[in-house]
Design brief:
This protein is α+β, with helices and mostly antiparallel strands. The protein has helices at about 30-40, 90-100, 115-120, 165, 185-200, 220-225, 255-275; strands at about 1-10, 20-25, 45-50, 55, 60-65, 75-80, 80-85, 100-105, 125, 130, 135-140, 145-150, 170-180, 180, 210, 235, 240, 245-250, 285. A hairpin with a 2-residue loop joins strand 9 and strand 10 (about 130). The relative contact order is 0.14. The structure holds flavin-adenine dinucleotide.
Length: about 280
């Protein structure tokens, strides 16, 4: 298993914020997780998937990071079921599914995510969520160091939330997805259309971590921010995207604290004008 000291996390968080951690581990097999967690008495361990939904609030972390990016990413197919390790990406999964004429993953093709991150966040779009195709999850329970399996029905999925977000002592290791036989040309077209529509709306030319806030019932966050005149509002290198106000972009040298300061201003102004308490979707680390 690869292990690096004083590791710079800039390429491992989609905001491209500069931050260093004391140690970074890149597991390759299940035993690596058990080894790491049983031989390490420091309880402050941070799990990172592909870093597409996190705000690194500090410039230095004493905590050790376990990073599932470019490792622990084997994928198997059994009939119409895809079984993937937590470090595999949704892009890899959907491309493999397309090549095997399996449908069900097209809408996830363009969501930058590891399998583990997608389960924890219940990633999705208005067309569906990861829970819709999930069968079960294998995880390491740090409370007793046992590897366990949990059925989809017991994961308590909600909008961008799951059992795993509420229990951060569980590490997602593997997930099973149930797909259906489909037409490869139709699957390919759907994937291409999904990507095109999303890129037309999202500020992909700048580092960002997708939608900052969860959608409050009956409202959309972007239009509320527009109404407040906050489009383009910036603190340091963190700026509310002019293309999509629900996104914060890094214009070059943003720190995690710049991003959090923009978020605090939006929360304050939305509360004052609309009486709504916004909930941040991104995980603050
Ligand atoms: C351009 C862009 C567009 C996006 N569009 C969407 C969208 O349409 N829909 C959507 O839902 N999201 C979207 N997102 C957000 C992001 O893609 C998802 O939240 C994604 O599921 C995060 O996966 P990740 O692997 O990057 O997780 P990370 O950001 O690495 O981690 C997210 C959380 O999960 C935890 N975690 C990660 N892996 C594990 C594991 N194996 N075990 C336990 N805990 C773990 C982390 O500790 C952290 O708390 C977008 C992001 C970007 C940058």
């Amino acid at each position: 298993m690869k292990f690096l000291k004083e590791f710079n996390l800039k390429k491992y968080n989609a905001y491209r914020v500069n931050a260093v951690c004391s140690k970074a581990w890149f597991p390759e097999k299940e035993e690596d997780f058990t080894f790491l967690c049983s031989n390490n008495t420091d309880p402050k361990r941070i799990i990172l998937g592909n870093g597409n939904n996190i705000i690194l609030s500090k410039e230095y972390y004493e905590e050790e990071f376990i990073i599932l990016n470019g490792c622990f990413d084997k994928i198997e197919i059994e009939d119409t079921t895809i079984i993937a390790e937590a470090g595999a990406t949704l892009k890899q999964l959907s491309e493999l599914a397309m090549n095997c004429s399996l449908t069900g993953l097209e809408i996830f093709y363009d969501i930058p995510s590891s399998v583990g991150g997608a389960v924890v966040m219940n990633a999705g779009t208005k067309e569906g969520e990861i829970k819709d195709i999930l069968v079960k999850v294998r995880y390491l329970d740090l409370s007793d160091l046992q590897i366990k399996e949990i059925a989809k029905e017991d994961i308590g999925f909600e909008y961008r939330n799951s059992f795993f977000q509420k229990h951060t002592d569980k590490i997602v290791l593997k997930a099973w997805f149930n797909l259906k036989k489909g037409n490869p040309e139709q699957i390919k077209t759907k994937m291409a259309e999904t990507k095109q529509t999303r890129w037309a709306k999202q500020p992909r030319e700048y580092p960002n971590c997708g939608s900052v806030f969860k959608r409050p019932p009956g409202r959309y966050v972007g239009p509320m921010i527009d109404e407040l005149g906050l489009k383009g509002f910036a603190i340091g290198g963190a700026k509310i995207s002019e293309k999509h106000s629900g996104f914060i972009i890094n214009t070059g040298n943003a720190t995690g604290q710049d991003i959090l300061a923009v978020i605090a201003e939006v929360e304050k102004r939305v509360k004052e004008k609309f009486g709504i308490d916004l909930e941040v979707e991104q995980r603050i680390i």
